[in-house]
Amino acid sequence: MAKKQTKEIGFEVACPDCGAMLRIDPVTQSVIAHTPAPRKRTFEDLGSAAKAAREQDARRDSIFAQSVEAQKNRDSILSAKFDEAFRKAKESPDTGKPLREFDLD
């Protein structure tokens, strides 16, 4: 009984960017198959993942506390800005209607 030999079409190359294996057809010069690279683990073990989650929680709480403090001081800051703008408006004389370039013709 004769064995059927299967011909593999094309050749394989590794993607230099992501490490995936690409099967290229030499006749059409196109990718005919793609095998993605194995995914790298973000964390080595569960302990380091839990530590990273705790650090992220602490950072989020810190940012929230800063925004709460900013909201507490917001009223006084806006009041001071308004008072300064009001003072500048009183000091500068009102010159009436502004002159437009159209009026100069």
Overview in brief:
This protein has 105 residues and is α+β, with helices and mostly antiparallel strands. It is built from 1 helix and 3 strands; from the N terminus they run E-E-E-H. A 3-stranded antiparallel sheet has the order 1-2-3, with no helix packed on it.
Keywords, please?
1 helix; elongated; 105 residues; three-stranded antiparallel β-sheet; alpha+beta
Radius of gyration of CA atoms, rounded to a whole number? 35 Å
- Largest beta sheet, briefly? 3 strands, antiparallel
Q: How far from one another are the termini?
A: 104 Å
The helix-strand sequence is EEEH
Low-confidence stretches: 1-6
- How large is the count of helical segments? 1
Q: Tell me the β content.
A: 5-15%
Provide the spatial order of strands within the biggest beta sheet: 1-2-3
Q: Count of DSSP E strands?
A: 3
Assembly of the depicted chains:
single chain
Let me know the average pLDDT.
84
**Helix/strand-derived class?**
alpha+beta
Helix content: 40-55%
Please tell me what the overall shape is.
Answer: elongated
Secondary-structure map with pairings?
Blueprint: E1 11-14, E2 21-25, E3 30-35, H1 46-91
Antiparallel strand pairs: 1-2, 2-3
Organism: Terriglobus roseus (strain DSM 18391 / NRRL B-41598 / KBS 63)
Protein name: 2-nitropropane dioxygenase
What report would you give on this structure?
It is a single chain. This protein has 105 residues and is an alpha+beta fold. It is 44% helix and 14% strand. It contains one helix and three strands. It has one helix spanning 46-91, and strands at residues 11-14, 21-25, 30-35. Strands 1-2-3 form a three-stranded antiparallel beta sheet, with no helix packed on it. Strand 2 and strand 3 (30-35) form a beta hairpin. The chain starts with 10 loop residues before the first strand and ends in a 14-residue tail after the last helix. The model is unreliable at 1-6 (pLDDT under 50).
